[in-house]
Amino acid sequence: MNPLPSRSPKASPALPQARGGESAHNLSTLHEVELRPEYRRILEQVAPGAAGPEPWRRRKLAAAHELLALAQISQRLLIQMLDLTEAFRTAFTLQMPVPCRDGETGPLRVAPAAVLGLTYRQEAMLSAQPGYSFIEILGPRNVFHANVASSSQPPGAQLLCLGPKLPPNIQLVDLVLMAYTAISLQTIQFSLVDPAGVLNPAAARWFQANPSHIPLTRDPFLSPKEAA
Amino acid sequence: MMNTRIWSTAGRPAAELAEVLHSLGFTSAAGGYELVSEGLRLEPGRSWWTLRQRVGDEDSPGAELLMSPGHPGLWKRVRFGDGIERLFALPARLLRTENAEQEEREGENLIGQTIQWALETAKGRVPEGWAPPEPGLLDSWFGREQLTVVNGGFLRQGDVITEPTQFALRFPIVPMLPPGLTPARRAWLRVLLEEAQNRWHLIRCGWLETPDGISAVLEVDLTGVPRALHEDLFVTSLEAVRWAVHWLGEPADWLADVTVASGLLAVCPSEKPTKGVP
Q1: In the Cβ-directed half-sphere of B60, how many Cα atoms lie within 13 Å?
Q2: What is the structure's pLDDT at B1?
């Protein structure tokens, strides 16, 4: 399954990173953040293309605002693509440690960032969805993680599993935060007897045997300065 | 001073707990206790105490999870594997704090009362001699504005029901099902409510039929709750139901709005299990 089929993005400029002087915000008030002009322009650019029933359209616009606000206040997140045409689709870079391993026996190496593709479909607003149905790690390849499907196994998509089932109407920003804590191993599910969650049994066994690598960071998503 | 009491995940000395439960007819079983005559299993977990009851004929697979509101107590139907079971769940902290100590000082036994509450309400009965809290006391536990949930353009007004034989919190999630709601839309709404009932402890969902029509409601029914738990469980329940209303309001509004056309909602939702690998 590839949540990001080859479709030209509606907006794909890499956006500027946050600058100093932001007013205080926390993650539960992102809808109140006033977007800076460069972020507002992106929203204005993609909004007319947002199709679908009115509640779904409204939801996509609200989620886009929150995602752009998160990118505005956080140094960690850089949005690279945003498309509201049908499903809510976005690709973004997250600065965070990412566990990788080349080949079956290579050493663990930690990449400094990941590019994630996130697809939020209309039905996710109305019914519970499998935890692997939202996020794919587009880069780096060779991610070595119990809850990420291996790129060396067909179909090669590095799907990230965030749990057996995620509740209906889960917030898009919550998915971003869950991806951060999952990939950086702050939260991890590596029980091989539970078929939900473990997409790479070899990685699950390796981290069980090498727990000193868990977590890769204890940093929260927002730095104390960003959150203050 | 060294603590020599037996360790227990329940946050309560295991020997003391076992003594109380054995006196009520429970026997020890792996990970909990069982009352074989009632088909009940109690698991005193660190966060929640759960009582589960084997399915009966009325709960056979395929039966609806959602019940008519008003059933006394916290019992509800949830999915368990491929079937359905009855569940009564209570925050564990309520049974190990000063509530329990106070009751025991007064010569009463909170665990015993709580189990009796569960047993009586499992049969649809209210414990003998039970009464809801006095209105003045109840009002001191919360602000009436907490019965209003606002989320964007969505607003729901809840109610506290205090009758001689009922004490419950109830919020309409869809105040009135429109006459033109298609079977497919109603199926989507049912799946949404079932998911909420499965996912969140305390919360029960159902269809409330009145002379004016049918509404979909969320409720926490505290009828029969032991006096020592009145305030803490009410406050916890109010937060729980507010959270669920906030979470479900937007999708429920959409599903019930027949003026919004949607190809997705023209057919019934898939109810296949989603657990497993892609």
Answers
A1: 2
A2: 40
